[in-house]
């Protein structure tokens, strides 16, 4: 069985098969983790993203990683929390993880890392976002060598330590 890991850090530094980007539907960059990924990858990432025709909420697109140490970037668009009912937001966020993991599996990728999708600018409550991430990862862990949840902020890492100590 594959391993789920929770770490604190910067996802752009990881050299796994794929890192996941919490993008917006234009796929043309932004702030937060999206900005960090585009800065690290360089301008060729934006050039490839321009050819993709955007991405709908809950869906995914894959690109190369260019100057980043990972091999691929899987771009997914999380829900803006307050634009949906809580249960619709949860279903959409679950789709982000599901579709990213399914796409990675289809491509034969074995190691994948996620940021805490929607839990920054998009306002998803951090503790609920961590639960969606981990519970969805658990359903797919047999298909991967390692699935990593990368937490950037101190507060979200403290929540994860409390709620999921077994993955630290
Ligand atoms: N590595 C890992 N996690 C990070 C990093 C990093 N380098 N930088 C930030 N985070 P956000 P969203 C965490 O706002 O809520 C963008 O402008 C951050 O602490 O990046 O899905 C897009 O273009 C938070 O926990 O994404 C969209 O417009 C998590 O990543 C919009 O923001 C997600 O925060 C998407 O909003």
UniProtKB/TrEMBL annotation:
It comes from the Bacteria. This is O-acetyl-ADP-ribose deacetylase (Regulator of RNase III), contains Macro domain. NCBIfam families: PRK00431.1-6. SMART domains: A1pp. CDD domains: Macro_OAADPr_deacetylase. Residues 1-168 form the Macro domain. It comes from Treponema porcinum. PANTHER family: GANGLIOSIDE INDUCED DIFFERENTIATION ASSOCIATED PROTEIN 2-RELATED, MACRO DOMAIN-CONTAINING PROTEIN. InterPro entries: Macro_dom, Macro_dom-like. Transmembrane segments: none annotated.
């Amino acid at each position: 069985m594959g391993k789920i890991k929770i770490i604190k850090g910067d996802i752009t530094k990881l050299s796994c098969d794929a890192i996941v980007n919490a993008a917006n539907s234009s796929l043309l960059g932004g702030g937060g983790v999206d900005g960090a990924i585009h800065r690290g990858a360089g301008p060729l990432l934006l050039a490839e993203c321009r050819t993709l025709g955007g991405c709908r909420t809950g869906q995914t697109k894959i690109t190369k990683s260019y100057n980043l140490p990972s091999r691929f970037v899987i771009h997914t668009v999380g829900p803006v929390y307050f634009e949906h009912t809580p249960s619709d937001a949860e279903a959409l966020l679950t789709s982000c993880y599901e579709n990213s993991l399914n796409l990675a599996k289809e491509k034969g990728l074995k190691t994948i890392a996620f940021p805490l999708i929607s839990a920054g600018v998009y306002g998803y409550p951090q503790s609920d976002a961590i639960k969606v991430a981990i519970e969805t990862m658990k359903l797919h862990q047999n298909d991967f060598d390692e699935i990593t949840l990368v937490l950037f902020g101190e507060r979200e890492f403290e929540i994860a330590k409390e709620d999921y100590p077994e993955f630290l």
